[in-house]
């Protein structure tokens, strides 16, 4: 975790594995009332061979719109 920073709170956590193309897809089923909702997300990789056993991505802000 050298140089890594947690930019978001850990309010919701889910674990997944990356598919063979190297991408992680996750669907969110949001009601229509969620329009305008702002979500902050950050990705963490747990990997024992990395220093500290994990690495973190930068954070991203997503605004839901319909």
Keywords:
66 residues; mainly beta; two-stranded antiparallel sheet; two-stranded antiparallel ribbon; 4 strands; 0% helix
- Radius of gyration over alpha carbons? 14 Å
| Major pleated sheet | 2 strands, antiparallel
Q: How many H/I helices?
A: 0
The main sheet orders its strands as 1-4
- Gross geometry: globular
Uncertain segments are none
Percent helix, as a range, is under 10%
**Structural class determined from secondary elements:** mainly beta
Query: What is the average per-residue confidence, as pLDDT, rounded to a whole number?
Result: 79
Report the span from N to C terminus.
37 Å
Along the chain, the helix and strand elements come as: EEEE
Percentage of residues in strands: 15-25%
Structure description:
By secondary structure, this protein is an all-beta fold. The protein has strands at residues 38-41, 44-46, 54-56, 60-63. The strands form 2 sheets. The chain has a two-stranded antiparallel ribbon. Strands 2-3 form a two-stranded antiparallel sheet. The radius of gyration is 14 Å and the shape is globular. The termini are far apart. The model has no long low-confidence stretch (mean pLDDT 79).
Short description:
This protein has strands spanning 38-41, 44-46, 54-56, 60-63. The protein is mostly beta strands and 66 residues long.
């Amino acid at each position: 975790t050298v140089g890594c920073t947690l930019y978001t709170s850990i309010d919701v956590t889910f674990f997944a594995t990356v598919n063979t193309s190297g991408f992680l897809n996750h669907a969110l089923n949001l009601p229509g009332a969620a329009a305008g909702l702002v979500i902050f997300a950050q990705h963490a990789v747990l990997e024992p061979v990395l220093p500290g056993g994990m690495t973190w991505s930068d954070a991203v802000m997503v605004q839901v719109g319909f």
